[in-house]
């Protein structure tokens, strides 16, 4: 199990702060009310320390980092985020006392939180604590230090009135590693997320963050963005908001595991995939990003920034573009991760022994959060090795860190490791063949880790939405008396029947000849939280082109292999020509659906031969069967 924050150490520091004298002269306190669930900010000085108190309904700090002076910024910026609170408006609080220049507060969304920036003239030595009444966050700034790598370790004087010549008691005076370490990097780049026990490197992979920039470096690995399966490559899966790196074979420089997230990425999951005989690194990210990829000295480096501009997919920045050079990881992880001395498991308990419910996860409103963020959950099943890891964003739930022995009919034990971005839940299974998934529970505050159907049979818990293209006032392609919408609906209804007979959960966007807008089709599938969206169409192509074609959204990583499965089956089952699979950027039903989506163009109405086939009952039936079989194959593919 993984290293976690030592609870004792936290208490140690909190208590040592609480017993520190707080003889603040009333006149020395600057106060500003902020008028939200963050209600007030105060600043005061006490001997050689400065204190900033933030009165807030939540005292949970999710992220903190320090940005060194850079560019036009001459000051240090100590940044942190308070979970689930807001201020009434963006606030600037000019201090200009001690080392503090300004305090700024601004709201951030998704999830709701307040970002606080404290600008200081010197590199701050700082510690966070919570007031004894639990109503405020106390940020204590020690005497600013300009020598970065020298931790101040004078023993704190027990006296409340230190002699003038004695060193100033530093708030981070304990020689133990601080739970709120000051980043030791003076360059301003590469100060990592200050999560205790943070893992930021794994073999050749290292991740650093500074402000809104995250740098991912692969030492000695050169990636390309081609689809060639035999060379190390990367793929930005915009729809799933994930960067995936695939290295052929088992690269033993890596160890299976995960790296800590930060304000930009949720973390990284490193696994060896035996089926594909490859090493896979999956890096899900928050919201919108921009990225550049460059290769310098045989190392691949990604520079990822949070932002709203569109992602330059398949358009890597040439290596001449200046990018941050790869940085050494701040703390190489020890080869053997120590077992945690304390377990702090939250919100998770063993199932009810019904042979299906493996674990129960609880949290207020957790089902809503799950429905919003479930596409960010990554599941990694090691197959015969008998473990499965779920990487769950903490925007759904923070499960804490530690281990639990369960030993029921399904599970031997679980291991948990949580960072600010993600909780990693590893299940040590009783039966390696059993598959697990996270589903909603019996009420809005409960999720269940449940057994799926195992290796055989289709997974009937997954909903498939079939979308017969066009309908009503929109006929689709028209050739003489033949309307595309009619074939689409006929195939879809037959496909529905076949799927239902095989126990697959299926819903249709239309079952009659009616007009349905594209956005309503998308909304239908999104509202149902479908697992797969399959739109059924027939084509109109220039003369001389005929056959089958399947479309997918250009950044959908599952869409592409699913499209290939469907196309190969159509061609095999129907004897049609293979036009191919095609990536699309602006096909609404592919682009806006939140699940993998494919669009099958069964045959070409523009081709007299294909049209004649479409007008036979056997061809329509075979098309329905082929699509149904592809769907079952997709559901069982484990892709
Ligand atoms: Zn169509």
CATH superfamily (homologous) name of the largest domain: Zn-dependent exopeptidases
Taking the sheet with the most strands, its summary is: 6 strands, antiparallel
Structurally, how many domains make up the residues? 4
Shape: elongated
Classify the secondary structure makeup into a structural class.
alpha+beta
Structural write-up:
The chain is of the alpha+beta class. The chain has four domains: 7-141, Sandwich (Immunoglobulin-like); 201-306, Immunoglobulin-like, CATH 2.60.40; 345-451, no CATH class; 463-635, Aminopeptidase (3-Layer(aba) Sandwich), CATH 3.40.630. The chain is 15% helix and 36% strand. The strands form eight sheets. Strands 21-26-27-28-25-24 form a six-stranded antiparallel sheet, with no helix packed on it. A six-stranded mixed sheet has the order 34-31-35-38-36-37. The radius of gyration is 28 Å and the shape is elongated. The chain binds zinc ion.
Quick gist of this model?
With 639 residues, the chain is of the alpha+beta class.
Strand and helix layout:
Elements: H1 7-18, E1 30-33, E2 38-46, E3 49-56, E4 61-67, E5 76-83, E6 91-97, E7 100-108, E8 113-120, E9 126-130, E10 136-141, E11 201-202, E12 205-210, E13 213-218, E14 233-237, E15 242-248, E16 257-259, E17 268-273, E18 278-284, E19 289-296, E20 299-306, E21 344-345, E22 348-350, E23 357-362, H2 366-373, E24 378-381, E25 387-393, E26 400-405, E27 411-418, E28 422-429, E29 436-440, E30 446-451, E31 463-468, E32 478-479, E33 482-483, H3 484-501, E34 505-508, H4 518-527, E35 532-539, E36 548-553, H5 559-574, E37 578-584, H6 588-591, E38 597-604, H7 608-614, H8 617-635
Parallel strand pairs: 31-34, 31-35, 35-38, 36-37
Antiparallel strand pairs: 1-2, 2-3, 3-10, 4-5, 5-8, 6-7, 7-8, 9-10, 11-12, 12-13, 13-20, 14-15, 15-18, 16-17, 17-18, 19-20, 21-26, 22-23, 23-30, 24-25, 25-28, 26-27, 27-28, 29-30, 32-33, 36-38
């Amino acid at each position: 199990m993984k290293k976690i924050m030592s609870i004792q150490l936290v208490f140690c520091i909190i208590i040592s702060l609480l017993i520190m004298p707080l003889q603040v002269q009333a006149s020395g306190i600057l106060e500003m009310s902020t008028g939200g669930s963050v209600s007030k900010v105060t600043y005061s000085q006490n001997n050689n320390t400065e204190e900033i108190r933030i009165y807030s309904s939540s005292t949970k700090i999710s992220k903190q980092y320090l940005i060194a002076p850079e560019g036009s910024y001459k000051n240090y910026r100590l940044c942190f985020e308070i979970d689930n609170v807001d201020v009434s408006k963006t606030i600037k609080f000019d201090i200009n006392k001690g080392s503090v220049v300004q305090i700024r507060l601004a709201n951030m969304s998704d999830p709701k939180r307040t970002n606080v920036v404290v600008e200081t003239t010197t590199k701050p030595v700082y510690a966070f604590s919570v007031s004894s009444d639990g109503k405020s966050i106390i940020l204590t700034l020690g005497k600013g230090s300009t020598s970065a790598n020298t931790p101040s370790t004078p023993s704190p004087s027990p006296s409340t009135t230190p002699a003038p010549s004695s060193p100033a008691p530093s708030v981070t005076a304990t020689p133990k590693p601080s739970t709120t370490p000051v980043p030791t990097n003076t360059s301003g780049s590469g100060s990592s997320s200050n999560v205790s026990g943070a893992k930021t490197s794994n073999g050749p992979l290292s991740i650093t963050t500074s402000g809104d920039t995250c740098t991912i470096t692969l030492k000695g690995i050169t990636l390309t963005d081609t689809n060639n399966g035999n060379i190390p490559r990367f793929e930005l899966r915009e729809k799933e908001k994930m960067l995936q790196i695939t290295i052929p074979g088992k690269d033993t420089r890596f160890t299976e595991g995960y790296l800590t997230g930060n304000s930009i990425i949720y973390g990284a999951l490193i696994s060896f995939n035996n089926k594909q005989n490859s090493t896979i690194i999956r890096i899900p990210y928050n919201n919108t990003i921009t990225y550049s990829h460059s290769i310098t000295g045989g190392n691949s480096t990604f520079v990822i920034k949070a932002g709203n501009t569109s992602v330059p997919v398949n358009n890597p920045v040439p290596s001449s573009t200046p990018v941050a050079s790869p940085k050494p990881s701040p703390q190489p992880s020890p080869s053997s991760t120590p077992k945690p001395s304390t377990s702090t498991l939250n919100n998770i308990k063993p199932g009810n022994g019904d042979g299906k419910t493996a674990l129960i996860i609880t949290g207020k409103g957790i089902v809503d959060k799950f429905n919003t963020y479930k596409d960010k959950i990554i599941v990694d099943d090691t197959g015969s090795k008998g473990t499965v890891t779920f990487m769950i964003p903490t925007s759904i739930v923070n499960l804490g860190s530690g281990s639990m022995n369960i030993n029921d009919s399904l599970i031997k034990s679980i291991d948990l490791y949580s960072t600010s971005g993600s909780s990693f839940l590893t299940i040590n299974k009783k039966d390696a063949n059993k598959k697990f998934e996270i589903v909603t529970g019996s009420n809005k505050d409960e999720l269940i880790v449940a057994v799926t159907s195992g290796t055989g049979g289709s997974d009937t818990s997954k909903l498939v939405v079939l979308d017969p293209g066009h309908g009503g006032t929109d006929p689709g392609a028209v050739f003489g008396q033949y309307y595309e919408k009619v074939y689409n609906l006929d195939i879809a209804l037959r496909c529905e029947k076949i799927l239902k007979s095989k126990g697959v959960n299926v819903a249709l966007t239309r079952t009659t000849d009616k007009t349905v807008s594209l956005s309503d089709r998308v909304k239908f599938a999104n509202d149902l939280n479908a697992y797969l969206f399959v739109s059924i169409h027939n084509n109109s192509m220039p003369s001389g082109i005929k056959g089958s074609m399947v479309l997918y959204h250009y950044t959908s990583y599952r869409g592409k292999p699913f499209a290939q499965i469907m196309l190969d089956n159509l061609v095999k089952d129907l004897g049609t020509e293979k036009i191919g699979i095609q990536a699309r950027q602006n096909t609404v039903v592919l682009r806006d659906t939140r699940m993998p989506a494919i669009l099958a163009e069964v045959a070409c109405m523009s081709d007299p031969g294909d049209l004649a086939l479409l007008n036979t009952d056997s061809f329509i039936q075979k098309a329905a069967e082929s699509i149904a079989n592809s769907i079952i194959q997709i559901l069982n593919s484990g892709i």
